[in-house]
Amino acid sequence: MTRVSFKPAAATVGAYVLLTAITLEPSLAATFSLQVDLTEVFAGSLAVGDSFSGSFSFDETVLTGIGTEFLDVDSLEFGFLDETFTEASDPLGGLVGFENSQLLGLEFSVDPLQADSPSFGIFGTDFAYGEAGSFTFPDGLGTVSYAAVPTTTDVPEASVVMGLLAMGVGSLLLNRFHTSC
After folding, report:
1. Where are the domains of the chain?
2. Please, what is the angle between helix 7-23 and helix 158-180, to 10°?
3. Considering the entire predicted model, what is its pTM?
4. For the segment 3-62, what is each residue's pLDDT rounded down to a tens digit?
5. Cα angle 148, 154, 158; round to 5
């Protein structure tokens, strides 16, 4: 009985998937830094001119550039009053607003989960906060400025990763099939 070898076919399919993965454009994560400068302080321990900073990123490939758009934040870190807040600190995870491809700013708010945590909101170029234990809101206001971080990070497409994973599992199964025959 003639034995058919699947190795050339497996190699051809594997090479095709690999070359396709290499030529596909990965989606890009745009990263921006943000700085908050306090402009008005009504109560609490902070002073006019105090600054706080952070950064956030999002997948810019889904941006159409037409009209008003809001994109989900992929990652965010913001330091405020000796605490670091992330996208998980906002129940909505944070949004990035655009108007005809022009950055409007971040929409991000944190309500205190404990009495000793501050609350704040970043609304485009506006910032409002309440210090921990404060019964008034806001305790102060500020302005937000943004700057694009020049490096971009490749975000692998899920379909490419799944395809490569399927090919690897298929190769292992094919190899086991041939060794058992």
Report:
1. 1-26+157-181, 27-155
2. 170
3. 0.66
4. 555 555 554 445 454 445 444 445 567 899 999 999 999 888 899 999 999 999 999 888
5. 130
